[in-house]
Write a structure and sequence with these properties.
mainly alpha; elongated; 93 residues; 4 helices
Length: 93
């Protein structure tokens, strides 16, 4: 495994590197879980040109918007918005 970091060599012992690796994957898994469970990102059929990157940016924006409005249950919020699109306009305002 290759690790690139800006911490000094003498501070980069095995426990510190393991902690950094685990914290990275905790963040990655948490974000990926939200994007896949809420927006079914892994099942997306968008493959052409910039489509996948654009959709990922929109999903990230939507999650960020909800979190900035203190919405912690993103899936419940998205499910509610599917049934009440007027609430989406109120959330964005």
């Amino acid at each position: 495994m290759l690790v690139i970091t800006n911490i000094p060599f003498d501070a980069a012992d095995a426990p510190r590197l393991l902690e950094m690796n685990r914290s990275y994957w905790n963040i990655e898994n948490g974000l990926h879980y939200r994007k896949d469970m809420v927006f079914a990102e892994d099942r997306s059929t968008i493959r052409a040109k910039h489509g996948p990157a654009n959709m990922a940016a929109l999903r990230n924006f939507a999650i960020g918007l909800m979190l900035s409005n203190n919405i912690t249950n993103v899936k419940r919020c998205v499910d509610n918005l599917r049934h009440n699109s007027h609430q989406l306009l109120q959330l964005a305002a």
